[in-house]
Amino acid sequence: MLIKLLGKLFAMHRILFSPVIFFRAALLIALTVLFSFPTRSADEPAELLKSSFESAKAALAAGNEDEARRQFERTVALGLRQVANLAASQSRFEEANRELEEALRFAPADQDIAVDAAVASFRAGDVKKARQLAQSVVEKNPGDARAQNVLGRIDLYLGDFAAAIKDLKAAVAQNEEFETSYFLGLAYLKAKQFSDAQQWFQHLQQTMGDSAALHVLLGRAYSIARYPESAAAEFRKAIQLDPKYPRAHSLLGYSILEFRGEEAYPQARLEFERELKIQPEDYNALLLLGISDVALREFGAAEAALLHATRLRPKESFAYLYLGETASETKRCPLAVNSLGKYLRLVHDPEEVPRDVSRAYYLLGQCLRRLNRNEEAQKALENSQRFREKKFRYDAKHIFDEPGQAAAGDSRTSDRVEGLLQAGAVDSDKAAEAMAQGGVTQGGVTGNFAEKQVTAVPQPAETKAVKEYRAFVAEILASSYNDLGVMHAKAADFAGAAENFKQAAAWNPLLPGLDRNWGLASFRAEQYADAVAPLERQLKAHADDSFCRQLLGLSYSVLENYAKVVSVLQPFLDHPPDDPGLLFAWGTALIRMRQPDTAQSIFKRLLEQNADNAAIHLLLGQAHAQQLDYPNALAELKTALQLDPQLLDAHYYMGLVYLHQGEFESAAQEFRAELQLQPGNHLAKYHLGYGLLAQGHAAEAIPILRDVIKALPRYELAYFELGRALLDQGDSSGAIENLETAKNLAPEHDAVYFQLSRAYRRANRMQEAAQALAQYQKLIEGNRAKKRESLEMNRP
Fold this sequence. Notes:
By secondary structure, the chain is an all-alpha fold. Among the domains are: 317-411, Serine Threonine Protein Phosphatase 5, Tetratricopeptide repeat (Alpha Horseshoe); 713-796, Serine Threonine Protein Phosphatase 5, Tetratricopeptide repeat. The protein contains 40 helices and no strands. The chain has helices at residues 5-11, 19-25, 44-61, 65-89, 93-106, 111-124, 127-140, 145-158, 161-174, 178-190, 194-208, 212-224, 228-241, 248-260, 265-278, 283-295, 299-312, 318-329, 333-346, 354-370, 374-397, 413-438, 464-490, 494-507, 514-524, 528-541, 546-558, 562-569, 580-592, 596-609, 614-626, 630-643, 650-660, 664-677, 682-694, 698-711, 716-728, 732-745, 750-762, 766-793. Helix 7 packs antiparallel against helix 8 (145-158), helix 8 (145-158) packs antiparallel against helix 22 and helix 29 (580-592) packs parallel to helix 31 (614-626). Mean pLDDT is 83; it is low at 1-42, 398-414, 421-427, 442-459 and 788-796.
C-alpha cells in the first residue's frame, strides 16, 4: 500500500485536461505539487525515507554518532517535506509551511526545500516571505527553474508584468514545462504585448498538441487579460474539437457579451442553454442564462433559471439581485423586496460592486414606495445615490485606465451589461491572482465572474492510503527526533534535547520511553514547567519510576506548587530518598501546606544524613525563618557558620531575622559581616542602610543607600528609604526627587505617598501635599478592603 501511494494520489484528483497535457498541467495538484525528488519510480519518496532512516540507525549502532546525526537530520528534513507535501495536496498550506520551516532548520542549504517553502508560503498568502525564499535560491543558483517560476508567478500576482516575463522566460529556458509556459503567455497579455503572446501560445500549441482543454485555457488567458474577441475564438476552437467540453459554452457566451455588449444577449443565451444541456446543475450557466433572460425581458424563463441557481447556492448573492429585478418588472413588489434584501445581506463587499448595489437599492426603494413604506424607501434611495456617487468618483479617478461607463441605478439593459462586465473585470483580476498562486486549474477553466472571491479547487478527502503513508512517515520522524534528542542529551545540550523530544511527541506521543527522555531533558535544561507534563504521563504509566517521581516533585517545588509536591512525593513517606535537595523541597512544601509534624520528620532525616553540611543548615534556617520560627532559624544559621565561617548568605539571613525581631544593632553587625565576605551583595547593603536608618543614623545610611541605587537603579525600596533619610536631614528637594522615583517604580506602595506629602509640605507645595495624602488614604482604604475580603473568603 505504502509503496504504491504516489501513483494512487494522481488518481484522486479530478482531471480537467486531456491526457496529452495532464502530466505537466497537474504540477500543483498531485503529490508532486511542491516537491521534486530524483525520479526513479513512483514509490521513490517512501524508499528514500526508509533508506535514510536505516542508514542513520546503522551508523548509530556502529558508534559513528556524527554520521548518525547527519543521517537522522537528513531523514527528518526528508520526512517533513513529504508530510508537508501531503498537507499541500489537501490545501492545508499553513500546515505545509510549518513543516517546511522545520525542514529548513535541519537542511538550511537545501534549495529544493526552500523553493517548496516559497510555494507553500505563496499559496498561504504570505507573498513577502515567498519572494524572499525564492529570491534567495535564485541568488545562489540562477539556473533553478522552479525558483524562477515562483518569482515569475509572484510578479504576475503583484502586477509587475515586466518582471514576471523576465523571470518566467528564465524558468522556461531551463525547463519548458507547461504551466510555466502558460503563465509566460499570460504575462505577455497582461503587459499588452499581444503579438508576443500570440506567438508564444502558437508555440505552446505546437509543443503540446491540439486539444479542447488547451484552447479553453488559452481562451481563459485572453479573457483574463481583457481580449474578449480572441477569447471567444479560442472557446469556439475548443467546442469544435469537443462540443461537450465542460464550461466551454458558458465561457464563450460570456466572452461574446464582453466583446459585443447588449446586442449579443440572444447569441450568448444560446451558449448558456447549450452548457446546461451538458451540465444541468451548473450554477454559473444558470446564473448567466437568468441574467440574459432578464435583459431580453423573458421574466418567466429568467425566474426559473435564477431560482434553480439559488437552490444550488443559497448563500451566493448575485441571483437574488436579478430575481429582485424580475419581480419588480412583473409588479410583485413584496417578492422583489425580499429578493433584493437577500442580495444586499449576502453581497460580500458592497464597495467592490457599487453599480449593482446602487441598482439594488434603487429597485428596492421603488418597490418600497409602491408599498407605501416611504421612510424605508427614502433610506434605500439615499443608499442608491451614495453608491452611484462612489462609482462616479471611481470612474473620474480612473478615467484614463478604463472605458467610461454609464451611471448605475436603473434597470436599463446597457447598464445591466456594463454591470455584468464590471463584475467580470473584477473577477478576471482575481482569477489572474488565483491562477498565479495555484496553477491553471485554480480559477482557470472554472473561473466565474459572479464569485467575488476565487476559491481553491476543492480537494478530495484524505484517503486511506494517504493516512497510512502519513502514519508511516510519522513513525520515522518520531523515532528520528527521539534519537537526535538522546544525542543532544549526551552532549549536555539539554535544551536542544528537550526540543527534539517535544517534536518526537508531536509525531508519536506513544513512542516508548519518550516521556521519560523529554521530562529528564526539560528538567536538566531548567525548563521545569515543560518537564511537568511528560513526567506526569510517565508516572501514570510507570508508578514505580522513583527517579521520575523525584524529578517531578522538584519541578513542582521550583514552580511553587506545594500541594503537588506533597501529593507526588507521598509514596516516599515510609522510605524517603537521601537526596538533600529533594528532602529540603519536600519539607518546605509540607510546612507551606500546614503539615509541620510530617515536615519535621523529613527535616530530621535531612539533618541525620547531613549533620556536618553547612549548606543544609543554611537551608533549614531559611525554612524556619519563612515560618517565623526565629529561634530555630538563628540556631540553624549559627550552626551553619560554625561549620563554615566563610559560608555565603548565612550572615545575611541572620541579619534579616534580627531585623524582623527589631534588633537593629545585631542586624547591622550581620550585614557588615556578610559584606566582608560579599562586597557586591547589594541587598545586604540595602538592609544595612535600612537598619541604620531605623536606629536614627540617617547620615550614615544615606551614602550606603546611594551606592545601592547606583548598582540597582530600579530598586524602589532603596529610593524610598533614601527619600526618608534625606527628609530627616532636611533635604526636601532630594527627598522629593527620590520619593517621586519610588512612586513611579511602585505606584501602589502606599507609604511612598505619605512620605511625599510630608516632603511637599516642607517644600511649601501644599496642593501636591494634599493630593499625595489623599492618594495615601485611598490606597490604605483599598488595602483594608482587600484584607477584609481575603479574611471573609478564607473563613472555614
